[in-house]
Amino acid sequence: MITVVDYKVNNLRSLENTLRRLGHDVRVTSDPNDIRTAEQLILPGVGAFGDGMANLRKLGLADPFIEKVKSGTPTLGICLGMHLLCTESEEFGLHRGLDLLQGRVVKLPASLRVPHMGWNQLHPKRANGLMEGITESAFVYFVHSYYVQPEADDIVLATTDYEIEFPAIVHARNIWATQFHPEKSQHVGERILDNFAQVRRGQFL
Amino acid sequence: MLAKRIIPCLDVNNGRVVKGIHFVNLRDAGDPVECGLRYSAEGADELVFLDITASSDRRNIVAEMVRRVADAINIPFTVGGGLRNAGDIQEILRCGADKVSLNTAAVDSPELVQKAAKRFGSQCIVIAIDARRENGGVKVYTQGGRVRTDRDAVEWAKAVADLGAGEILLTSMDADGTKNGYDLDLTRSVAEAVRIPVIASGGAGSLEHLYRGLTEAGASAVLAASIFHFREVTIAQAKSYLRERGVVIR
């Protein structure tokens, strides 16, 4: 069973539907107790970092989530979810994140067309179970204005180029995170979600 | 590299896809989910559903369609037509649309753009601009092209970008329906004036038109309805044509 954290900033219908179509059991929840009993966690999201953190706290989800991830539960952050896992963000002022991934969320350069919106390519840097079956230069769907600058480059599994090169997938211990939306990325995204669903507790691919 | 996008547009009336010229002589062209799935399988990068339902039950009809599309389709889609306020936007997003497109409501109350971008995120707020040339400028039209405003199209594009819009869907009313190609000058003027993505719309009649919209005019995406609906070209053909000419395509 995959537990998708609903912190009320956006619709999770696509993600839920995609996971179900792939044959996985899904629970979409805002109940802290469901987080405490989760086998696998997905922190999804689009929207603003500050609102996202505020909602996680207001709904009483932040602390159980942090505890659960630290205890080794396989966790996937998607887009804003990836950002929230980080130490801090400079989106509309400086905000503290969940600090489960060491890194800072920064704005894409003003010289670029922002949001970075559309299909862009993955360039794998290291082999990892999450990317099994994903080929070099595979296209996935992005929509974001900020990206993650990790403290240490060795957490980067794949990068994407949009004038600058930024992390598209990161991995540390039991945590994976994608800047793109696997649930909107057709077969490539489905493969990544499937790969994540295979991860069991204590198994870090 | 970021790929240029090909976006089929589906006009929807009472929960059914319709085909017609300028919204007259509408004829039924199928189920939105089936049409969307076919385009998605052919390689469409996104879909736009433009609702023109006039019935008093339109809210429910549109919501139901959006839910069904979201349940079946795994590429991003935008829903536009008749959205008046933050409540309308929220409902469509909650039903599963990735983006909404606003036109008349944005012109009537630009503060809605700012409010919606802040509340739902810039990434899901597309501003549709219907523009028509006249002596000395290009004016913005609302109400499905029926009402002329005094707003200049390029200035309006800049204004909505500053208000937090995430994308502009620019339709040339002069070119729309002609199949003579996009208004390249207008598209270029807007694409150069803003730093958000611009979708060219109105006038696509051939593969070359798509190519010129994406290259000469600098659009991030091209939208087309009839050439895809009437199977004059398939999305796959469009993509291979563009790829052969060096355009980055998924």
Summarize the structure.
The complex is a heterodimer of chains A (205) and B (250). By secondary structure, chain A is of the alpha/beta class.
Write up this protein.
The complex is a heterodimer of chains A (205) and B (250). With 205 residues, chain A is of the alpha/beta class. Chain A has a single domain (2-197), classed as Rossmann fold. Helix content of chain A is 25%, strand content 33%. Chain A has helices at residues 13-21, 32-36, 49-58, 62-70, 80-84, 186-198; strands at residues 2-5, 26-29, 40-43, 75-78, 86-89, 95-96, 101-107, 116-121, 123-124, 139-144, 146-150, 156-162, 164-172, 175-178. In chain A, the strands form three sheets. In chain A, strands 2-1-3-4-14-13-12-9 form an eight-stranded mixed β-sheet. A four-stranded mixed β-sheet of chain A has the order 6-5-7-11. In chain A, strand 1, helix 1 (13-21) and strand 2 form a beta-alpha-beta unit. The two termini of chain A are 19 Å apart. In chain A, 55% of the residues are buried. Chain B is α/β, with parallel strands linked by helices. Chain B is 37% helix and 28% strand. In chain B, helix 1 (32-42) runs parallel beside helix 2 and helix 6 (153-163) packs parallel to helix 7. The longest helix of chain B is centred in the N-terminal third of the chain and has 15 residues, at 58-72. The radius of gyration of chain B is 17 Å and the shape is globular. The interface between A and B is medium-sized, with 36 and 33 residues.
